[in-house]
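Q: Can I borrow your eye for a moment on a structure tokenisation matter? Would you mind producing a protein record, from residues through to fold? Write it directly below this note and I will take it from there.
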Amino acid sequence: MTLKSFMNEALSPWMKNEGPESDIVISSRVRLARNLEKVPFPIAASEEQLEDVTYRIGEEFTGDAHQDFGELSLVKMADLTANEKQVLVEKHLVSPHLTRKPLHRAALLSKDESLSVMINEEDHFRIQCLLSGFQLEEGLQLADAMDDWMEESLDFAFDERRGYLTSCPTNVGTGLRSSVMMHLPALVLTKQLNRILPAINQLGLVVRGIYGEGSEAQGNLYQISNQKTLGASESDIVKDLRSVVTQLIEHERTAREQLWNDSRMKLEDRIFRSYGLLSYSRIMESKEAMRRLSDVRLGIDMGIIENVPAKILNELMVMTQPGFLQQYAGESLKPEERDQRRASLIRERLHMENNEESHDGGGE
């Protein structure tokens, strides 16, 4: 399989688009936690009850096309290889938690993979919508549409005073978790982010790494999300997150200007060194790849590197993860083999773009 055909088949269609504020906000996600009434939460449910939940979803919501999502497919975790499950995690379609006990766990996916409903994770259902750039309101609208559709045929656990009942008390109420994935290299380089993070936490928001709770920040990518779900409306939660993210965007842009004005030569040297290493290295560990890709993405967004679209870095940040590398290779790889494959894939992708640029300019 060629790299181009693999990219077209492997990457979620929504990843290929550039949404609002995409130079800083990589993606927006809205997730709703829901549980069935009179059925124990997954942590306490029997295998027969979990199996029945998965069966009902397959019967009710596959086969017919929905006006907002098209036809949905049920993907059972028990039917996947370990590497296929890892790819779904790397694409943010399912959580690592869902894949650890695969029996009677599943995901309901739309064709463009902007919608994913995790089944029997911590809750019976976790409806999530993923969109490129800064599109929280649009994500909420789509998640609500799926929520409404499911509630036409399912009875959700709901209390008039507390709201939707969930396995984790922090999700009780709206059951809403809204988040954005942000690329904040300038705030890191100017050492401002560590001062900003405590203020964000005091506002009832939480900052996590690239794969959410328990993960570390790689490639200067940070996930900002709400903590409060009880006592506020869905629209208010999204509005509060939007306000904080808007300020973070302004801070990041100011920090980029500061770097350009105060340390332009050092900044350019850092960016072009990373570009050179990505273009020619034969071995590349995952953390270094993310760090170098972050530098180059900053260079593209600031106009320092020209004729390389930002989407390449979005692609490579996903495709250089262990699951994707092994999927592309068609076999399991040892860590040192993955490091070699990672370097090779990055070189091939950058070379492909350079060839396309040369071809486009060949008529001059």
